[in-house]
Amino acid sequence: MLDKIKQKKTKKAEATEELRVMQEELIDLANKAKAQKLPVIITIDGWSAAGKGSQISRLIKYLDPRFYDVEAIRSPNDQEKRKPWMHRFWQRLPKAGDMLILDGSWYRDTVNALMFGEIDKEEYKRRIRDINTFERQLTDDGALLIKLFLHITAEEQKARIDKLSSSEITRWRVSENDVINNRNYDKFFRRYDKTLERTNTDYAPWHVVPANDKLTARHDILTTVSTAIKGACEAKEKGERFKPAAQFDTIEVKPEEFKLVKTKKLSEIKMDKALDDEEYGRKLEKYQNRLFELQNLCYQRKIPVIIAYEGWDAGGKGGNIKRVASALDPRGCVVKPIAAPEPSELARHYLWRFWTRIENDGHFTIFDRTWYGRVMVEPIEGITPKERADMAYREINEFERQLTDWGAVIVKFWINIDKDEQYRRFKERENTPSKQWKITEEDWRNRGKWEQYEEAVDRMVELTSTDFAPWTIVEGNDKKYARVKALKTICKMIEQRLLADAE
């Protein structure tokens, strides 16, 4: 791709009026995108000294600063290294109607990390896969993603680096890596080129900008950005999906295949499992003590553990979580209760609020309800169209696979009770003053949709019980049995992971 770019020079006299018109048009388009709640993400990558900062300054010069953010992406700090590598990009996603402009992006993280020996080629390939997944998920959700690569020649890069280095005022802007980038221009050229080719998709195509001449670069950037926002706004008005224009032939990214674990339907689960008080007390102590030991090993080895709880209303999730959390050192464990999304969460991709809640490596994150609401509650209650909700099975498997690649142990529970037991617990809550706050009209309404929810759960478990993040159905009619089974399952899965690491 890069070898097809011809550097050119634009005459100022010819471009001044056209640039002014385009700049005014961009202001109107930005306001239109705001009104239509279109999230716009612009990534500006390219060679060291290609002029990314100055081009961003010109791009935003007349835009309303209340509705855009500019983020400079540099090497991850120590805190960011303790999260999944894509975490810091998910965290930065703009609200619907806002604009995010990135000076460097997930591409900088990937290419530089490989070229400077921070990751190997296998990790590089995984990151390319993660990037294509991330960009598809964002555009499927309605975001506009504009990817710009500022391309300059080796001679131009050297001249700019030399000029910056010669002044005490600008010398700080040149790093050792910038010099290495120029010294090894041909190697970086090949890696940049391969990376652009492997991520040049129809939903997020690359726009390579000839940037030897700054005026030419400004003209191309304004044209690309304005054209894309205009097209996306027009498509949204028509209720259509926007297909951005591609500068080069795009690639087709095949869906990732996941190995699914065979599961049973809820109706096939025998619900007669129970423990007496003596056996419960003995086993509870045994597995809580073991879990505490395993937590210390996970912390030492920086293994994150993510425990996801779903289940029927009144299924006993709270009591179950309490027995797990009480066994752990609270300094390395956080419980995340998930309620209806806040306005700021509704304004972003539904996975955003879960990505941003992931704790550091070596820590436990326990979710009381999860991302699976997307395929259960939302389509049944008409919150999310079925077509969009159906896409979530793939997105969720991709999300959990990325967490597993990060090193996480993922434990997923469906706390199952039968309909009669739920009724008994609902009535008990109604008749017990200290528990009445736990029962609402919504709980009774949901009970009326039992068959719909059971069908949704069966499909959810069938399509998302992968070999790296399988579901465990917990027989919950007897709370004591359910608590011990959950603790035992968590211990077993962590032990399996520690054993695999030792081999």
Describe this structure in words.
This protein is α/β, with parallel strands linked by helices and 503 residues long. The protein has 2 domains: 2-238, 3-Layer(aba) Sandwich (Rossmann fold); 266-502, Rossmann fold (3-Layer(aba) Sandwich), CATH 3.40.50.300. The chain contains 20 helices and 10 strands. It has helices spanning 12-35, 52-59, 87-91, 106-115, 121-140, 154-165, 176-183, 185-198, 214-238, 277-301, 317-325, 343-346, 352-355, 377-380, 386-390, 392-406, 419-431, 441-447, 450-464, 479-502; strands at residues 40-46, 68-72, 99-103, 144-151, 206-210, 305-311, 333-337, 364-368, 409-416, 471-475. The protein has a 5-stranded parallel β-sheet, with helices on both faces. α4 runs antiparallel to α5 (121-140). It is elongated and about 85 Å long. The relative contact order is 0.12. The model has no long low-confidence stretch (mean pLDDT 96).
